[in-house]
Design brief:
Distance between the termini: 51 Å
Strand content: 5-15%
Strand order of the largest sheet: 1-4-5-6-7-8-9
Shape: globular
Number of strands: 9
Helix content: 40-55%
Length: 360
């Protein structure tokens, strides 16, 4: 089997849903499309979560995945940081393993650990036993999106999914991994099996994104959180074709497609080649250097080090100003963190960062 094919049947293209709002004045969407809005838009990965006391109060006694399948709860959690921080985009409260759970994979999110799989997937029988995802299985997520479309006013809503490599890593390793040794070993020693698995996961991610798009999200982000563990050569051979299948599969909706990974400074061009309109950049390289690596023309998102939200305000202010200045090298810049908000961050600091970005 070639690296660009899988045994799964290509999913048909879909067209934009009538549920989508017209938001011509939204700075986030303008920047994502390479424009220069009146202010630099800002949102934060993991802005809806543990840093907010209202989130902790709402989630008390409720398991993470249960919250992800409760339309009212996921809508309320998604709205909380928009109300508090006045960010320029909401991101759907969910998790990258939600479509796997919905399809019937025995996976759970263990507090303090992360996603844990009951039976790791490491052979052909296990790959072939993976269920397909049908849209009705994530109907509660779509219902939550529809509630948000009604309640967000002029604030865009970002939907998201996990990319095939990162999903595969959790399934193969059985949970979070520092070295991804089982994943890399399978990838290289059984490439046909790898492409079979990654192709199936691409279908699941694509179905999940389409369900969100049909319900009305205004942009999508594909998280390949652990792709930075790979060389560019391995990324292009083993990963890019499957991420491209997901990103190409939502192209007809006409919404911005963001692609993000951690430690991916050497992969930025390859991730853009997978079909990204906006390339997420973590904190390890400056944004102007990221633009250079992307050929001098790019829309980028990022890239404040999340740990610096714990620094003194003068330090943090200087970093925010530097990043906004470096972002002007891009065709469009969306201010964000280089990864997610850490649980112990003072939410007032986030609000203050939003205000500063909007002033610059």
């Amino acid at each position: 089997m070639s690296p660009t094919t899988s045994s799964t049947t290509p999913l048909p293209q879909r067209t934009a849903a009538s549920a989508r709002r017209e938001l011509p004045e939204a700075p986030f969407l303008a920047a994502a499309r390479g424009g220069r809005p009146a202010r630099t838009p800002v949102w934060f990965m993991r802005q809806a979560g543990r840093s907010l006391p209202e989130y902790r109060a709402l989630r008390e006694g409720v398991a993470m995945l249960d919250a992800c399948f409760d339309p009212e709860m996921l809508a309320e959690i998604t709205l909380q940081p928009v109300r508090r921080h006045e960010v320029d985009a909401a991101i759907l409260f969910s998790d990258i393993v939600v479509p796997l759970k919905a399809a019937g994979v025995d996976i759970d999110i263990v507090p303090g650990t992360g996603p844990v799989v009951a039976s790791p997937v490491r052979d052909l029988a296990a790959v072939k036993a993976l269920p397909e995802l049908v849209p009705d299985q994530v109907g509660q997520v779509a219902d939550g999106v529809r509630l948000l479309v009604e309640r967000l006013g002029g604030t865009p809503l970002i939907g998201f999914a996990g990319a095939p490599f990162t999903l595969a890593s959790y399934l193969i390793e059985g949970g979070p991994s520092r070295n991804h040794e089982h994943t890399k070993a399978l990838m290289h020693s059984s490439p046909e099996l790898w492409h079979e698995l990654a192709g199936r996961l691409a279908d699941i991610a694509l179905t999940f994104l389409r369900a969100q798009l049909d319900a009305g999200v205004d942009a999508v982000q594909l998280f390949d959180s652990w792709a930075g563990a790979l060389s560019e050569r391995d990324y292009r051979e083993f990963v890019l074709p499957h991420s491209a299948k997901v990103l190409d599969g939502v192209a007809s909706y006409g919404v911005p497609r963001i692609h993000f990974g951690v430690g991916t400074g050497e992969l930025l061009a390859a991730m853009r080649d997978a079909g990204a309109d906006v390339v997420g950049v973590d904190w390890r390289i400056p944004l102007d250097e990221a633009v250079r690596r992307l050929g001098g023309k790019a829309v980028v998102q990022g890239n404040l080090d999340p740990a610096l939200l714990h620094a003194s305000w003068p330090v943090l202010e200087a970093e925010v100003r530097r990043i906004v200045a470096e972002g002007r090298a891009a065709d469009g810049h969306i201010f964000n963190l280089g990864h997610g908000v850490l649980p112990g961050v003072d939410p007032e600091v986030l609000t203050r960062v939003v205000g500063l970005v909007h002033e610059l």
